Amino acid sequence: MNRDPHAWARLGRALKQARLAQGMDQAELAEKADVSRMSVQSAEAGTMPKSRMPYTLPAIASTLGWPPGSVEAILDGAEPPAAWRDVPVQAALNAERLETILSAAMVRATDNVTPAEIRAATKIALDELRREGMLAETDGVQP
């Protein structure tokens, strides 16, 4: 069994990304995989097991649509299935720039929507990105 903590962390990130890409929360994945929510949390946290491969990992991976052997392959350095990649990202996005991009995209993609509705939808998207840890939290003060 692989004992590299970085490999386990990478596996955890891949599992979480796959779950999020499928629109599931941890409880839903646990139920579908017939494992505990704690098992999903531990797997996504990249917790390295003390002695042996957790029996729940293949069930979680299978539920996410990964082929057999994917967990071991990822731990050995292979790319996760479905084109997921572990790439470094900017730690905190600039919220103001992101808001501008989202608003402009919404204006181009919608008809008969008021500016207030676009601002409200943009705020919802930004709040969701903050909850997912993809955007830095603000102090409540808008620039």
Mean pLDDT: 82
Unreliable stretches (pLDDT < 50, length at least 5) are: 85-92
Helix content, binned percent: 55-70%
Radius of gyration: 19 Å
Alpha-carbon distance between the two ends: 50 Å
Approximate strand percentage: under 5%
Tell me the major beta sheet: none
Judging from the principal axes of the Cα atoms, what is the shape?
elongated
The CATH architecture designation of the largest domain is: Orthogonal Bundle
> Briefly, what CATH class of the largest domain?
Mainly Alpha
Structural class, from secondary structure content? mainly alpha
Output the keywords.
143 residues; 434 Repressor (Amino-terminal Domain); 7 helices; mainly alpha; 2 domains; single chain
Explain this structure.
The chain is mainly alpha-helical and 143 residues long. The protein has 2 domains: 71 residues, 434 Repressor (Amino-terminal Domain); 54 residues, no CATH class. Helix content is 56%, strand content 0%. The radius of gyration is 19 Å and the shape is elongated. About 6% of the residues have low confidence.
